[in-house]
């Protein structure tokens, strides 16, 4: 393109200069003028084709970047789902791991271990059901 556009301008300048000169001072033959018009048409077609190809290349680059961004968004959505599920369970593990006997009598309760895992399972099921209903597992 950097070569063809100046050539295109040069041919246009030669044609306009030839058209503006006196008929006795014409420096180009009629056959050369026909040839130059043909070359100008070819150069114009090639420049237009190159601009179309450059625009198509830019569109393809945008498509690649958008595809990568969509993949990243899908990955981030899955990480958010996993974090949302495990956040309350982590909180419960932290609370039950503090060993405050007077505040948490269920720590020494006979069914305390089963109670903890039942609560974690119930929270997980509820969160997963809510997320499925909201369509977060579609990724």
Helices and strands in order:
Layout: H1 4-20, H2 30-96, H3 112-134
Helix pairs in contact: 1-2, 2-3
What does this entry look like structurally?
- By secondary structure, the protein is an all-alpha fold.
- The chain contains 3 helices and no strands.
- α1 runs antiparallel to α2 and α2 runs antiparallel to α3.
- The longest helix is centred in the middle third of the chain and has 67 residues.
- The chain is rod-shaped and about 115 Å long.
Oligomerization category of the chains in this entry? single chain
| Radius of gyration, whole Å | 38 Å
Query: What kind of sheet is the major sheet?
Result: none
Mean pLDDT: 83
Order of helices and strands: HHH
- Structural class estimated from helices and strands: mainly alpha
| Beginning-to-end CA distance, first to last residue | 44 Å
Helix percent band: over 70%
Given as residue ranges, the uncertain stretches (5+ residues, pLDDT < 50) are none
Strands, count: 0
User: What percent strand?
Assistant: under 5%
Please state the overall shape, judged from the principal axes of the Cα atoms: rod-shaped
Tally the helices: what do you get? 3
